[in-house]
């Protein structure tokens, strides 16, 4: 089953979901300045250059596990974003990427502490607005 998504709003072209996923992957790779070969190497060869190219061209659709590997290799987007499940695009800021890296490496207690602090700080910024 092919799902169509509108690209570009009213009057924009209609792309399949597979093509949109490929477009997001290509954009994220280019933002990082990586070639297909370099991105493949970042997955420790788990995903070949050819397979990644097929994803980008919309010839194949990546699964959840492949999206997770590519997300970790890119470090700037989530697997959910790549799969068009989340619209929050890039982690543009180096501090955002660093915070996400710390969160991913933390144990359950550390993650809870990070989330608790984020909730407190988020509440402060809302109150100041």
How would you describe what is shown here?
This protein has helices at residues 17-32, 36-42, 49-57, 64-74, 79-82, 94-105, 108-128; strands at residues 4-7, 13-16. The protein is mainly α and 129 residues long. The chain folds into 2 domains: 1-91, lambda repressor-like DNA-binding domains (434 Repressor (Amino-terminal Domain)), CATH 1.10.260.40; 93-129, no CATH class. It has a two-stranded antiparallel sheet with strand order 1-2. Helix 1 packs across helix 3 (49-57) and helix 2 (36-42) packs across helix 3 (49-57). The longest helix is centred in the C-terminal third of the chain and has 21 residues, at 108-128. The protein is elongated.
Note the topology.
Blueprint: E1 4-7, E2 13-16, H1 17-32, H2 36-42, H3 49-57, H4 64-74, H5 79-82, H6 94-105, H7 108-128
Antiparallel strand pairs: 1-2
Averaged pLDDT, please? 84
The major beta sheet can be summarized as: 2 strands, antiparallel
Structural class: mainly alpha
Report the CATH C-level class of the largest domain.
Mainly Alpha
H and E string = EEHHHHHHH
- The separation of the N and C termini measures 46 Å
Strand numbers in spatial order across the main sheet: 1-2
Q: Would you identify the CATH architecture of the largest domain?
A: Orthogonal Bundle
Radius of gyration: 17 Å
Low-confidence stretches: 6-12
Please name the CATH topology of the largest domain: 434 Repressor (Amino-terminal Domain)
Count of β-strands: 2
Morphology: elongated
Total of helices: 7
How much helix, percentage-wise, in residues? 55-70%
CATH homology group of the largest domain: lambda repressor-like DNA-binding domains
Number of domains: 2
Q: Strand portion, in percent?
A: 5-15%
């Amino acid at each position: 089953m092919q799902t169509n998504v509108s690209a570009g709003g009213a009057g924009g072209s209609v792309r399949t979901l597979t093509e949109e996923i490929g477009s997001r992957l290509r954009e994220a790779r280019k933002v990082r300045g990586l070639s297909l070969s370099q991105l493949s190497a970042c997955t420790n060869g788990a995903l070949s250059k050819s397979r990644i190219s097929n994803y980008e061209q919309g010839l194949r659709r990546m699964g959840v596990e492949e999206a997770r590997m590519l997300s970790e290799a890119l470090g700037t987007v989530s697997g959910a974003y790549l799969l068009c499940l989340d619209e929050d695009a890039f982690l543009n800021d180096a501090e955002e990427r660093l915070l996400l890296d710390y969160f991913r490496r933390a144990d359950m207690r550390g993650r809870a502490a990070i989330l608790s602090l984020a909730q407190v700080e988020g509440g402060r910024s809302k109150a100041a607005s």
